[in-house]
Every structure is written in C-alpha cells, then in structure tokens.
C-alpha cells in the first residue's frame, strides 16, 4: 500500500511505510545519505547509510522504510531503515537541477525540455493554478444554469475574417481551424440559453510577441435574455470571483508560484471608451487603446477604485466584429467591452446582434454576402433572444496571476510561429 | 425580474410574473388561445383570449401575467391575463414542428438544421446527458488526485501512424491535427502522475460509418505508479460509475431521452482475448474481434455476470500501438484492454511501456527511427513510472445510453467525410 509524501506526516512513528516517486535530490554527507523523494503530493526525506547506492535524480523508485519523527524533515517525519527499489534504469541527467528552489534556465531551454522541466515544483504549481481556475470557471457557471457544450474546431468558413486562420486539407478540400467558438456558441444560446466551452482556439499569428500563441485555451461563455452588455459583465464578475476562490483553495501552489491573487470587487468599475481616451490624454478619434494606455488605465482603476480590474465599454463599432451590438442611440460606439486585469487586456465581451435583418445589414455593410453565413444565420431567422458573452484566455490569466513575462512560461506545450514541438 | 418556467409552479397564485423564452406552440381554440412557452428550464402555459395575436413558433417573447392554479397546466400553474411582447421580428417557420413529442425527421434534415432542431426538448436532453457525463468524469478524477491538463492539437508528427491524419498548413510547413493526446498525456504523467483531458481529437476517417466522426470528444486519462492494466481498469470503473451517477442526477433529461442507465458493477468482469475468441467460436489466430463477436460477448457478459460492461484484456501486440506494454511472460499478448458496453467498444486502455530502452526497441521493431520521436522520448530517458490510461469517446457513450442508431444524432455539429457545416 503506497503512502503519498504529503501523508507521511500523519504516519504513526515506527510504522512501515512505502513511498513511490522520483528521486528529487540526493545528498551524500560524511556519515549519512539523504534521498529526497518527489511525488504528486510533495516531497519526503529518506535517510540512508553513508555511501548508500542512491540512483540519480529523476529515476523513479519505490522506497520502503520506517516512519520516524524528525523536526528537520519536511512535514516533521522522515523514512529511516529504508530500502530503495528502482522502477526503471537510472535516469539521464536532467537539463537543469530540478531540486534547486528556482528553475534558472533560458526560455528556449524551458520550452525545448518542457516534458522534464515542468516537473520542477514551482513550475508544476503554475499549471496547478490553471487547473484550479478551470474548476472554478465551470463550477460557477454550472451553479448559474449554464450547459457545457462542445463545438467543432474544423469549420467551413473563417469565424471573423480570413486573416490569421489555419487551413486544413479536409478530404481534399479546404477547411479551417476555428479561431473561436463564437458562431456556434451563439447558435447554442438558441438551444440552451446559457452555454460555456473550454477548448482550443487557433490563430495563425504571424508575429512573435510575449502575449500571443498559435493555439491557446479559450474559456467561452454566452447567454441569452440579457438587457445589454452590463448583464454579461455581471456574469464575468462572478466567474472571475469563482476562479480566484478555486485558485485560493490551492494555497501550496499559490505560495510556490508567488501568485498575487486579486480581490474581485462586487462590481467591476466601468469606464466608457471615449472617457478612457480622454483620461489617458489620447486623441478623441483613436480607434483603439495602446498598451501604454491600458497600463495607465490599470493604474487609474487601482488608485481610484482599489480594483485590479477595469471594464472599458463602448469600443468603436468600426473596430469590432460584425455581430457586435451597437450602443443604443449612438452607433459609433458598441455595447462591447474589454476587461483589463492589472492594465492588460484579459477578456473581450459584449452584446451581440440578435435580429436576423440586423445581421444581413451588418454583413452587407462589410461588403460580404449573407448567403456565405447561411448555416450561422438560420438560428437568427428562427428566433433568438438578446444575448452576449465573453472569452477569457486561460494562459493570459495565469501569466498575470504569477506575473510571468511571457505567456509561454505558463503554457504546457506552447505553439507559435517557430515552435511545433515538444 | 424573470421567472423560469420550471419555477412557475412555486409562484403564489395571483402573483404578477414575467416569463421569457421561445413560443413553443400556439393553439387557437374557439373560446381561448394557448401559448406554450419554452425556456432553458422547461415549458409553461399562457392563456390568452380567443383570436389573440400570438407570434409564430420559435419567436422569442417576454410574457407578463398572473400566476393561476390549473391542474391541467404543466406544473399545475399557468399564466392568465397575459401580455406578450416580441423580442425580435416573428420567427420563420422551423424545418420541423418542435412542439411534437418526437422529432420525426431524416438524419440529413436533422444535421442540416442542427442549430434549430437541437431546440427540440427530447433532442436537447440528449446533449444534457453528455454535459452531465463530463461533470461526472471530472469530479470523479478530481477526487482521486488527478490534474486536468491541456495538450496541443497542432503536432509535428502523427501520433500513432501516418494514416487518417489531417494536415495543416502551419506557417508554410506541414503540421498535423492530433489524433489523440497520447504522447503528451504520458509525458505529463512525469509531471503530475495522474492527468486527464477532455478535448477534441481528429481522425481523417475515409469511411462513412454510424460510429466514426472526423472530430470527436475524447475523455483521456493517464496515471502512474500502477502495477499493470488492471489498476487502470479499476480507475475506469470508478469514472464510469461517476458518469452514470451524474447522468442520473438529471432525471428529467433521462426521461426525455428514454436513456437506459447501466449499473456499473463493483468489479467489471474481465475476459482474456484468447478466451473471448474461443467463447464466440472464432479461430484462435484472429487478430481482432469482429462486431458480431463483440455483440456476442456483450450478451454473454449480461447473461453470465449481469453486467452491461465487459473488459477484454490481452489484445494481440501485433494490433496495438508501439507504446503498448506486453503481457509479462507471453509477448504475443498485451497488457491492454477494450471495454465493451452493451456489446460495442466504448473504451480502449492499457499499460504503456515505461523504460526508455523498450521504446527504442519497439520503435525500431516497427521499422522506424527513435530519433523521430525525440521530444516524446525525453520523458522516458529522464525517469518515468509504470503507467497506463484509457480514452472514452463522449459521443459513443451518449449514443449507447440513448440507443441512437448513429453517433451523429448525439453530436452537436458532427464532422465527417461529407459534412463540414453547420
């Protein structure tokens, strides 16, 4: 019967215990040899005689011995009189010393050796924050009557434009990798009213930046019977609070990563795009916020509202996709928003058009033919409610939590212009 | 303040109530008009005067009125003195009458009009079983110390063979769509020991069958520090029990679909492949089970063990992928299994190789060069535990539960040789 490292501290002193895991570190002292074992739960210390034959770091082993109290050992209990059994051949030397407190390697080394370097406890904890976030995302939405859906990643037409789309050879004809589940999640509002999906999205980003990936995890939400985009923002607020609570329930991972958890305010402060431009001193006809504007707005939100989050609503219609709902009374602006988290864009959301004639007009206004969108538009011809939604990028979220300089540092196996392996 | 149809029965008689949803059905009688409203929670009856102007079926509306007890109405309460407000233009006539108890359409009609026909309550309930299954899958594994992971769908090499793989134009060079997360989930056993993923997998299936899709949802599990494939089967047993329990917690969806829920036995019965061949009277050198053999085995499991499930272990190594662990003592057979559910293959699983030299030998034995698998094999050179796992096809699972003749009937937007829309 195997005991996890984490549970060793609860073992009765003197009990015979078997641990299994990786040799995290060996330390030969003059009169004693330490083997630190790592498993999914944590670390444990094993005491062996001086000169004992300890396999190299990362070898998988089974260790049987006696649980013995020692205030110096992790958890206050170590294994003595231990027998070490190898589960494979001795492991090759890892590309970095995984037992050191920090993984001090260059980004290319980290990514080339991801299968091994993700084993470092501080690196592994980063993904544990991602996994906890997913749990919090889903449980919050399940409570609110949302249905999880699965939409196709192979699609006939590019979602929003022909740019940045990957082409697939689909039984001899072209297909595309979905850039977002936008069209399908809207159609499914017609079925379930409230839907969410966690899945990969694909962007053929031709630029090398610290924030973009060719494939990332999108946390997508869409809901019907709303008044306007403010109802969408209220759901986003609760989702973020649920994600933060789930992350906080993994205190050991939070500590390992040094993540700084935000407080999600009861109401996320909102500023209109036009006011945001004025606030940062940008010309009133700017169509978008520059990164330095987003940073300044983040600082303002923290100083003025004590909030790590700020929603900028009303983005110019000209810069939003065709399905965006205009702001009633002033169609220069839209009922959409970006959510800034610590001065960086984390979420895009808003209200969508819901009337079939509005879709026809919006598509024609972009010089396209509604017939090309026929399978999407059938949902609207057969009755759709006012609706909206948002999408959170999982990797960006975790990168902000742990203040990673590059989104690749928190992505298990990133894909970009240059990287297709491991 | 909106009330859901399902909650109308709890309204105080005489209370003013507002419902929102779709016009599910209108019925004009001589002295009265009925409007049946549908929302995500169910149906409600609205009473209007004879000759009232009721919008056509599927139009979205807001209805305000007085909650009034009526034993004939769904839930025992209906809305009287009602005012109906349209939320869009009147809806176009749907491709089938969604208010009829059964959706009596051909498969092509069902698939061409999926965005509208999924609204039918009995059809919608099928996907609700899928969503519940996902919840049960994840919660069971979360309890058992598994970590959810996200592996790339864009990969450099085909997972198991060059056959049935989709090619992507990846910034001017070829990439492939992952046929399974197999390689990456194994690597991540090295990090988290126990991992799962729910995600799309892609198979360029050149054949039109009732069981195959070009894109489907795979529920993948992999765990380390096992004795052999029987430990994997034990986890699979608990996962299936968790999925059935989650489905059972949606009794209204179970009833709507007529799903027949299996009892998951404490131990799933196991038969060796060689014994299975003998049992069905097949030649002892058959390399695989034919569909009629699987059916016969399913009947045998039910008659002999009272079980809807049967694990067939020991499949010939020659028919299994290179990473399969052979059966100790007789390398003709493997430590792998297929799980039959009611006589159809639902799950494939087993123990994998875990020693680096075994991988080199297995890959060379297939006439390939281990160097081509370098990024995958680095995990094994740096220490991996004995491990194994399995994959469940979500759509096949739901199809078996509701006894759908074709897996496409339970897939939101199926993709196959001929179909890339809606």
TrEMBL record, chains A, B:
Coarse class of the protein's main subcellular location: cytoplasm
Matching InterPro entries: Aa-tRNA-synt_II, aa-tRNA-synth_II, aa-tRNA-synth_II/BPL/LPL, Asp-tRNA_synthase_2, Asp/Asn-tRNA-synth_IIb, NA-bd_OB-fold, NA-bd_OB_tRNA
Swiss-Prot/TrEMBL site (Important for tRNA non-discrimination) positions: 74
Gene Ontology terms for molecular function: aspartate-tRNA ligase activity; aspartate-tRNA(Asn) ligase activity; ATP binding; RNA binding
Aspartate: annotated segments: 182-185
UniProt binding sites for ATP: 203-205, 211-213, 345, 393-396
PROSITE patterns xref list: AA_TRNA_LIGASE_II
Pfam families membership: tRNA-synt_2 (PF00152), tRNA_anti-codon (PF01336)
PANTHER family associated with the record: ASPARTATE--TRNA LIGASE, CYTOPLASMIC, ASPARTYL-TRNA SYNTHETASE
Family: Belongs to the class-II aminoacyl-tRNA synthetase family. Type 2 subfamily.
Complexes and interactors: Homodimer.
NCBIfam families (UniProt xref): PRK05159.1
Protein name: Aspartate--tRNA(Asp/Asn) ligase
Organism in which the protein naturally occurs: Nocardioides zhouii
Gene designation per UniProt: aspS
């Amino acid at each position: 019967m195997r005991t996890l490292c984490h549970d060793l501290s609860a073992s009765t002193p003197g009990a015979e215990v078997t641990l299994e895991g990786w040799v995290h570190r060996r330390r030969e002292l003059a009169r004693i040899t330490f083997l630190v074992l790592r498993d999914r739960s944590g670390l444990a210390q094993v005491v062996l005689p001086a000169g004992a034959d300890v396999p190299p770091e990362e070898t998988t082993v089974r260790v049987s011995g006696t649980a013995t109290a020692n205030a110096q050992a992790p958890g206050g209990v170590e294994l003595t009189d231990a027998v070490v059994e190898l589960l494979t051949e001795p492991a090759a030397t890892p590309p970095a010393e995984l037992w050191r407190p920090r993984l001090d390697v260059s980004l290319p080394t980290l990514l080339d050796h991801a299968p091994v370097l993700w084993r470092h406890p501080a690196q592994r904890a980063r993904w544990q924050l991602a996994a906890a976030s997913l749990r919090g995302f889903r449980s919050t939405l399940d409570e609110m009557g949302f249905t999880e859906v699965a939409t196709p990643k192979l699609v006939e037409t590019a979602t929003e434009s022909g740019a940045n789309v990957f082409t697939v050879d689909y039984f001899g004809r072209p297909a595309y990798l979905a850039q977002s589940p936008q069209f399908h999640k809207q159609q499914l509002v017609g079925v379930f009213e409230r839907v969410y999906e966690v899945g990969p999205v694909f962007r053929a980003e031709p630029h090398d930046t610290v924030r973009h990936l060719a494939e990332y995890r999108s946390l997508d939400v869409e809901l019907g019977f709303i008044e306007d985009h403010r109802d969408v923002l209220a759901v986003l607020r609760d989702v973020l609070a649920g994600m933060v609570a789930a992350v906080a329930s993994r205190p050991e991972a939070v500590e390992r990563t040094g993540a700084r958890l935000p407080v999600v305010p009861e109401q996320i402060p909102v500023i209109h795009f036009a006011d945001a431009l004025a606030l940062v001193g940008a010309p009133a006809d700017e169509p978008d916020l520059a990164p330095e504007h987003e940073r300044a707005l983040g600082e303002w939100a923290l100083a003025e509202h004590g909030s790590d989050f700020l929603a900028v609503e009303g983005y110019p219609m000209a810069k939003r996709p065709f399905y965006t709902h205009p702001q009633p009374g002033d169609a220069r602006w839209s009922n959409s928003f970006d959510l800034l988290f610590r001065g960086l864009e984390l979420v895009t959301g808003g209200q969508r058009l819901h009337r079939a004639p509005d879709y026809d007009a919006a598509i024609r206004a972009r010089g396209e033919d509604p017939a090309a969108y026929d399978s999407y538009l059938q949902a609207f011809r057969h009755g759709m409610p006012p609706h909206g939604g948002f999408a959170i990028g999982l990797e960006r979220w975790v990168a902000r939590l742990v203040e990673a300089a590059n989104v690749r540092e928190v992505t298990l196996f990133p894909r970009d212009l240059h990287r297709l392996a491991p």
